[in-house]
Amino acid sequence: MTERGQATGGVPRALSSFVGRKELLGELRRKLGVSPLITLTGVGGGGKTRLALELAGQVQRAYDDGVRVVELAPARGGDPELLAQVVLSAVGVPDQATTTPLDTLVDYLRSRRVLLVLDNCEHLVEPVAELVRAVLGAAPGVRVLATSRARLRVPGEVLVMVPPLEVPAEDAPVSSACESVALLVDRAEAGVPGWRVTPENWPDVVRVLRRTAGIPLAIEQVVVRMRSMPVSLLADRLDDVMRVLTANDTTRVAHHQTMAAMIDWSHAQCTPAERLLWARLSVFEGGFSLPAAEAVCSGGELDRDEVADALAGLLDKSIALPSADRSRHHLLEPLRQHGAARLRDSGERADVRARHQEFFRQGATRLAGGFAGHNEAALLAAVDLDMANHRVVLADLIGDPASAHAGLQMSVDLARTRWYTYAGRLPEERLWLGRALAATPASADPLRVSAMALDAWIALCLGVDRAQVARRVEELTGLAEEVGVPLPPVTFVRGAYAVLALGEIEGVELLRQAHEGFGAMGPHFAVDHHLAHILHTVSLVLLGSREQAEPAAEEFFAECERLGALWGLSWAHWCRSVVQTRWGSPARALDVLREGLRVQRAIRDKWGPLWTIEALGWAHAEAGDAAAAARMLGLAHGLHRVTGVRVDGLVPFARFSDRAAARARSALGDAAFERAYANPAESVEQALAAVLDAPEPAGPRDSRPAGLTQAEWNVARLVGGGLSNPEVADRLVISPATVHTHLTRIYRKLDIANRHQLITLLANLAE
C-alpha cells in the first residue's frame, strides 16, 4: 500500500512494508541495466504496482535525474494529447507553448538518466506505446518500467510475468519462510492485534493461503476478515467459495478466476450500502474526498447521511484506501474495475456519472468564485487534488454537443482559478479552452468572448507570436462591441497586450479600467479583480514614473497583506523590488526578491519564480555585481527555455533584461559573462535551490547561528543593532507583520524569549 501524492525522489511513500519477491527483484535490477523497457504483467491484484515501486525505490540512486512515477489510470480515456499532459505533470516538466506535449517530454528527457515508471497501462496500450517509442528513441539514458496486463509491443520490450507468491504445501511444516505466509503474518500482525501463527492454527493458515493462490491482494483481503473470525472459520468460508467456483469445472482454476472470486467474496461480505457505494465510487478518477462521495454516491437506496458509515466499512475492509490524514481516499485499480462492472450492471451508471459531472462542474464554479485572499493557497491545492476528475468531466462535457456549452463554462472557471499558471501548465489551459471553443458555435456570447480573452491572455504570457495575438485582440474588440455591455476580460486583455506586447504605457489605463470593472461585478469575480490589480501594478512599476509606481506598489502590498493572499504577496514583493531597483536601493531590492522567492517556494508556485529570478538579475546589475547578474539572468533564461516562454515577446521585461545583460557583459567581458550566464536550470525547484540554498560567504563576525535562514538572520542583525520592528521593515522593504513572524521563529530556534535576550546573544557572538 502506498500513499498517493507524497513522494521522495518521485517514489510514493509506502504505508506498509514490502514482503518477499527477493529473487524477482534481483532479476529485475539486472534487467534494468540492459533493457530500455521492462513491462511487468500478470493477474490483477498480483502486486505489479507494489513490486514496481519497490524496485524503483531500490534503484533510484542509480539514476542521476531520479525516478518519476506516473499513475495512468486517470488518463484512461485514450486521448494521446491528454496522456502526454498527465505524464508531463507527473514527471515535473514545465509545459511549453511552442511544441506538442510529447515533443516537450522527449526534449526534457533527451539528455537525462531517469527511470520512468508507468503504472496501469492496459487502458491505453496504443498511446502509451507511442509515447514510450518516442522517448526511448531519443533518450538513451531513460529506462521505462511499465505495469500492464497487456504487452506494449515496443521494440526492446522485456516482458516479465509477476507470478503469485509461493504458497506452502498442504503438509508443509510450520514456517514463515514462504513468501505468502510472510505477507499474511506481516499484515495480520498490523491489523489483528495478538494474532500469530501457532502449530494449532497452521493447517488452517495453509488452507487460507492455498485458496488465495498466493495473490497478494487476495491475501490482503482475507486478512481483513481475520479481524472478525478465527482462521479456521475463514478457511471453511474460502473452501465454500472455491467449491462454487469449480462446481462446473474440473480443470485447474486460473489465477484471474481466483482473484475475481476473492473480490466477489469480499463484495459478498459487504453490507448492501457498502456494495452500492463501492460501485458508485468507481466513477472517480484519482481519488475522492468524503464530501465528494456524499454528493455523487448518495441517492436512491443510499441516503447522504449513510455514505460516511458505508465508506468507513469499505476502509475497514481495505477496499477503499485512505491518505495519511484521511482527507482523501481511492480504490485500488482491480477493485475499482470490479465496482465499475457492478455499476454498469446496475443500470444506474449514467445517473452516477451525471452527478459526478455536476459535482465537479459546480465545484469549478465555486473554486473560481471563492477567492477571499487568505484561502488562495487552499483553493489552488483543491484544484490540484481533483485535477484528474476535472479533466475527465471536461472531456465528457466538451465531447457531447448537448453539454458543450457547460464544458466551455467549466473550462473558463478552471482557467479563472489560475491553477494552470500556478502549476506551470498554461498550454493545457489553452488545450481545454481551444477544445471548448471549437465545440461551441461562434457567436458574440459573453461567455464565449471571455473564453477567447482568457486564451489570448495565456498566449501573451507564453510569448506566442505577436501577430497572432494582435489578430485575436482585434477580433475581441469587435465582439465586445457586438455584445454591447462592458466586458472586463476584453478590456483586461487589450491592456495586457498594449503593455506586454507593445510596451505602451497607454495600456495601464485599460488595466485600471479592467480592475475597476471586475470589482463592480461583485465578490464572485474577486480573483479576476485581484489578477487585474497585479498586472496593473506590474505595468506601472515597469513603464510608469516613480511618482506613479511607488504609491501603486505600496497600495498593492497593503492590499495583499489585508487579504492574506500569498501568491499576490509574492508579486507585491516583486513590484516593490523593481521600484527599489529603478529608483532606490538595489541591495534592498535583492532582499525583497528573495523574500518573494521564499513565499513562492512555500506555496509551490511554478510561474512566479521565473520572473523573480529575472528581476534578481536586474537588481544585481544595478548594484554593480555583474557576475551575480549574469548568473541570475542565466538561471532565468534556463527556466524560460524549459517553459517555452519567449521573453522577447514581453517587451517591458525584455528591455530590463537586455539592459542588465549589457551592463554585466560590459563589466565582465564576453568570456566571463558567458561562463557566469551558463548556469542552466531544468526545473523551478532546481533554480530556487540555486538561489535560496546556495551557501553565502560570511566573515567571522557575521556568521549566523545554525538554523536561521538568511531572511531571519537579516532581521536578527538589524534588531541586534537596535532597530525597531517598523525600522527593520522599512530597511528590508517588508511589512512589520513579517518582521514579527520572523522574530517569533528566531526566538524559537535560538531558545530565547524576547528581544533583549536576542540583542545580548548577538553581542556575545560578535565578541
Task: Spell out the key features of this protein.
single chain, 767 residues, mainly alpha, 5-stranded parallel β-sheet, two-stranded antiparallel sheet, 37 helices, 6% strand
Using the CA coordinates, give the radius of gyration.
29 Å
Structural class by secondary-structure content: mainly alpha
Average residue-wise pLDDT: 85
Number of strands: 9
Strand order of the largest sheet: 4-5-6-3-7
What shape does the CA trace take?
globular
Tell me the strand percentage band.
5-15%
User: What's the end-to-end separation, in Å?
Assistant: 55 Å
Percent of residues in helices: 55-70%
Q: Report the biggest beta sheet as strand number plus sense, adding barrel if it closes.
A: 5 strands, parallel
Low-confidence stretches: 3-9, 696-702
Count of separate DSSP helical elements: 37
Describe this structure in words.
The structure is a single chain. The chain is mainly alpha-helical and 767 residues long. It is 63% helix and 6% strand. It contains 37 helices and nine strands. It has a five-stranded parallel β-sheet with strand order 4-5-6-3-7, sandwiched between helices. A hairpin with a 6-residue loop joins strand 8 (320-322) and strand 9. Helix 22 (466-483) runs antiparallel to helix 23, helix 27 runs parallel beside helix 29 and helix 29 (608-623) packs across helix 31 (651-668). The longest helix is centred in the middle third of the chain and has 21 residues, at 349-369. The chain starts with a strand and ends with a helix. Residues 701-766 form the HTH luxR-type domain.
